[in-house]
Amino acid sequence: MRAAQRLRVLVVAPERHPLRQPHAGGLEAVVWNRVRWLKRRGHDVELCAAAGSDFLGSGADLQLPSPRWRCIDETSDSENPAGHRGRIADAFARVRRRLTDPVDGVDVVDNHSLHGDPILWSRDAGIPVVTTLHTPPLPDMVHAARSLPPTAPHRFLAVSQYTARAWSDEGVDAFVFPNGVDSSEWRRGRGGEQWVWFGRIVPEKAPHLAIRAARLAGARLRIAGRIGDQRYFTREVEPLLGDGVEYVGPLRQPELCALVGASSVALVTPVWSEPFGLVLAEALMTGTPVAAFDAGGASEVLAGLPGCTVVPARDVSALAQAALSLAARSASPAFRDRVRAAASARHSLARRHREVERVLTVAAHSRMAEVDSLIAGAEAVGA
Q1: CA torsion sign, 287 to 292 to 297 to 302?
Q2: Where is average pLDDT lowest: 73-87, 158-172, 214-228, 277-291?
Q3: Which end of the chain is less packed: N or C, by CB atoms within 10 Å?
Q4: For 60-79, what is the mean pLDDT?
Q5: Domains of the chain, earliest start first
Q6: Is residue 34 within 8 Å of residue 110, measured between CB atoms?
Q7: What pTM was computed for the model?
């Protein structure tokens, strides 16, 4: 299918990890799918992302430097090695200069960076920018947002009401555009006996608490995902492995879907201000029910959906009991069908992308009042 109006779009990815499978996290998966969909729609899409990403051209001018860690034990998703922020700023300055080139310029920037500089391109280069807020407020981004004049061709989107409220408290207003899941790739599974936990292995995702819940319930658990904090994994997760708990590593999407779909229940254990929690929607799309901690936007993502139980954050006993109850129902094909159908209706990726395409199209012509009206209409119908 071709887009009604072809756009020249620069998608700015989160800068820490390459955009490729196995995805480093839900944020990277969301942006990877965005680039792929916009290209399929016929738009002229360029990607600014870490070296090694899919969809990067042969030139180096849009490649961002990856963190240079001295040893594996230092790797972290929340800290930067010495000098890394400066290297990123230099790379973004190079990209900004490119945007003003009459040949290489773009109509609109679809920004998913966790750095403040791309926000300011709308002010400094007059380029329309649509920034999606995927995280709790970050000081660098808050400062950049506060530096924008009212006339800057810029709009903020947030992945949940919870996230939008958190940014609003910092003086940054955003419209809510939740994430979506590709139902053609996240297919219904037949279920199984083991439990599953998947995502980034970092302290704020707390897979060690999922292991404790499985142990308490006498259940087998498989853990999948990239180790984003090696010290945490070595200290809190690795000693708990074995005796029915297995770490299977990071998986590409088809293998991850098969694992989740062959499970009786998925445990989701955030102990931070979870902005959205893509794993929630992904698990439900396979028909696998979800037992989750009530943290950040998790309750918002799951509200009203069948096959979900939310318990107080860090309450391992309540999580175990909720998971046992859901796992007992998961063997029913009718139950799994109902879980998937409801998740598809709520979190369809195709619907999300069509709405974002309309926003980018209007923003490309700097008709920001129309962007506001368009987004407000999407929110009104439950987008």
Answers
A1: positive
A2: 73-87
A3: N
A4: 79
A5: 8-180+349-380 (3.40.50.2000), 195-347 (3.40.50.2000)
A6: yes
A7: 0.91
